[in-house]
Amino acid sequence: MIDFFKRAFGPFFVAILVFPLHMSAQTKFILANDGIMPPKEVEKMEQMGSELYRKTRVPVFVAAVEELNASKPAKFLEPLKREYSTYILLYFSVKPTAVNIFASEDAKNLIDIDQILSPLPWKGTIKPVMSPAFSKSESVKYEVALFNGYADIVDQVAESKGVNLTTSVGSGSKTSFQIVRTIFYAILAFVILQFIMVKRGKRGSEPER
Hints:
Layout lengths: L1 H8 L1 H16 L3 E4 L5 H18 L3 E8 L5 H11 L4 E8 L2 E6 L9 H4 L21 H24 L9 H35 L4
Parallel strand pairs: 1-2, 2-3
Antiparallel strand pairs: 3-4
């Protein structure tokens, strides 16, 4: 029967078989990048997103924009809702600085949004990196935060679906980053505590009038 259709319809039959694969290959997961992420990171994120989508049919997108008012989340969400029944969108804007994760109802069960967006340095994978204490360079902070957050989302979806990703950054890399970040914030907290103690000491040593 298949041979009959191949002989009868020729290229049209082949096109039907290839079309879904072609569509998957053409899917772009970085919807917007206003010069915030460098090409190498974009390429790696596209690889992670493509493999995840191929294996789970769950697309994870990123929209990194310069101006929130110029490119609001709805601009990206409306087309996604029309095209995909399941989707996740990591949205970030520089001015004002804002980050959020939007997901379809079924996709919300695949990831821990509260954990990913947590401001706690030992828990969150995005907001702690965006802190002024993490780096003096705004561009570095945004790059690391977006890449780390996207990798966390992709890995959580893969784990929920029970699949392994060859493009994953790996738990070892994340653990090392987490340790370094926790140590950094511990040192920062120590410095702040010392500053407070010195201030209090000076006040206590002031002569009464």
